[in-house]
Specification:
By secondary structure, the protein is α+β, with helices and mostly antiparallel strands. The chain has five helices and 23 strands. β6 and β7 form a beta hairpin. The radius of gyration is 23 Å and the shape is globular.
Length: 374
C-alpha cells in the first residue's frame, strides 16, 4: 500500500509539472521564477534544439545514403548523422583560431580525399585517420612526428582534431562526398550593443556559412564568402544594425542575382549594410526612408530567384517536399551594390556576388563580426 501511495504521489507531481509548463504565461511565468526555474532559458534551449534538428535533417537530405557529419564549432562537438538521427557525438580537441584568416570555416562541404596516414602540407607531421572536407581543411586524429612522438601543441591551422579512437570511428563512417556541415553560434557578447543592434536575434540562429568560408576556384584563386548566412528555424525579425537611410530595395526577380528580397542601408559614405533572402519587408520602404538602430526592417526567409522563387541548400533544391531553410544573408560593405564595391568584374568576367577573390576586404567588404565588436 505504501508503495502504491508513493507511485501515485510521483505521478501527481509529474502531471502538475506538465500542466504548469504548458499553461505558463503572464503571471504563471513569474510563478515559475519564484520556484527557481528560468522560463526564457527553457524556451531558448528548446528553440535552439529544434533549429539544430532542422540542420541535422538538412544534412541527411544532402546525402545519397542519409549519412552526414555535423560540427558545432562553438560547442566543439562533432555529430555523426544517420538518416536524420544522431548516431554518435564526439568532442573536438582543437580547431583553427577564431581571430585568424585560417580559422575553421562554417559552411556546407563534402568529404574529399581520405588518408589513413596523411603527411601535413604545413609541417612535418602525420595526421592519422584524416579526411578532407575542403581543400587544406581536414578532420583527423592527433598529429605525430616521423619518430612516433605525438604533437603536444593544440594549435591548428584550420583543421579539426579528434582523439585517435574517435577519429578512426569517424574516418570509417564517412566516404567520398559525404556531406560535412560546420555551424557556428554567436551571442550578444560578440557585439558592442552600445553602438550596434544584432541583425537578427542570435539566440534563435546558427551561422551556416561564415565570413571567409571558401568556395570554388576562379582564375587560380579560391572564392571567399563576403558575408554571414544566419539560419533560423522560423521566420524571425531582421533589424537595422545602426541608424541610417534606405539606399536600395530589391524584390525577388530574374535580376536579383539570387539575393531575393533585399534591403541595403547607408550608415555613412563608406558603410552600407545588406540584408538578403527576406521573406518580406516590415513595410513598403522607399529609397531615402530613415531607419533607427534596432528597427525591424524585414523577416528572415528563403527568397531568391530560381526554384519558383525560393532558396534551398538541398541537392534537389527545387523539390517542394524539401525543408525550406529560412535565413538571413548579411553583409557590411563600402558601396550601395549587390556585387563587390571595389575591383570590378573579376569573377569570370562578371562582378562577384556573395563571394570574392582573395580577401573580401580587398574588394570593399568588412568582416561583419569584427565591425560589430568595435
Amino acid at each position: 500500500m505504501k508503495r502504491f501511495i508513493g507511485y501515485f504521489f510521483v505521478l501527481l507531481i509529474l502531471v502538475f509539472f506538465s500542466y504548469f509548463v504548458v499553461r505558463v504565461s503572464g503571471e504563471n511565468r513569474e510563478y515559475i521564477f519564484s520556484l527557481g526555474f528560468d522560463y526564457d532559458e527553457i524556451q531558448k534551449e528548446t528553440k535552439e534544439e529544434k533549429l539544430f534538428n532542422n540542420i541535422v535533417t538538412l544534412s541527411s537530405n544532402l546525402s545519397d545514403n542519409g549519412k552526414a557529419v555535423v560540427v558545432n564549432l562553438s560547442e566543439m562537438r562533432l555529430f555523426l548523422i544517420n538518416k536524420a538521427f544522431i548516431e554518435n557525438e564526439y568532442e573536438i580537441v582543437s580547431k583553427g583560431p577564431d581571430d585568424k584568416w585560417f580559422k575553421t570555416p562554417a559552411g556546407v562541404y563534402r568529404v574529399g580525399a581520405k588518408y589513413f596516414k596523411h603527411l601535413s602540407s604545413k609541417s612535418p607531421v602525420y595526421m592519422p585517420f584524416s579526411f578532407q572536407f575542403y581543400e587544406d581543411f581536414f578532420i583527423h586524429g592527433i598529429p605525430y612526428y616521423a619518430n612516433g612522438e605525438r604533437v603536444d601543441s593544440d594549435f591548428s591551422g584550420g583543421c579539426l582534431r579528434l582523439e585517435d579512437k574517435y577519429a578512426e570511428i569517424v574516418f570509417d563512417f564517412v566516404k567520398y562526398n559525404t556531406p560535412v556541415i560546420l555551424i557556428e553560434k554567436y551571442t550578444k557578447d560578440n557585439i558592442n550593443l552600445d553602438k550596434y543592434a544584432m541583425p537578427v536575434n542570435f539566440d534563435n540562429t546558427f551561422i551556416i556559412n561564415g565570413y571567409l568560408s571558401p568556395s570554388k576556384k576562379i582564375k587560380g584563386e579560391y572564392l571567399q564568402h563576403t558575408g554571414i548566412t544566419f539560419a533560423t528555424l522560423n521566420i524571425e525579425e531582421v533589424y537595422s544594425i545602426m541608424d541610417g537611410e534606405i539606399s536600395s530595395v530589391f524584390y525577388t526577380s530574374v535580376n536579383d542575382k539570387g539575393f531575393g528580397n533585399t534591403i541595403i542601408i547607408k550608415h555613412d559614405e563608406e558603410v552600407y549594410s545588406l540584408y538578403a533572402h527576406l521573406s518580406s519587408f516590415s513595410k513598403p520602404f522607399q529609397v531615402g526612408d530613415k531607419v533607427k538602430k534596432g528597427e525591424v526592417i524585414g523577416f528572415t526567409g528563403t527568397s531568391g530567384y530560381g526554384c519558383n522563387q525560393y532558396w534551398k541548400l538541398e541537392n534537389n533544391g527545387c523539390d517542394k517536399n524539401d525543408i525550406l531553410n529560412p535565413n538571413l544573408y548579411f553583409e557590411i560593405k563600402k558601396g550601395n551594390v549587390l556585387h563587390n564595391p571595389y575591383g570590378g568584374q573579376v569573377c569570370e568576367d562578371d562582378y562577384c556576388y556573395e563571394y570574392s577573390l582573395k580577401y573580401p576586404r580587398y574588394y570593399g567588404y568588412y568582416s561583419p563580426i569584427d565591425f560589430l565588436k568595435n
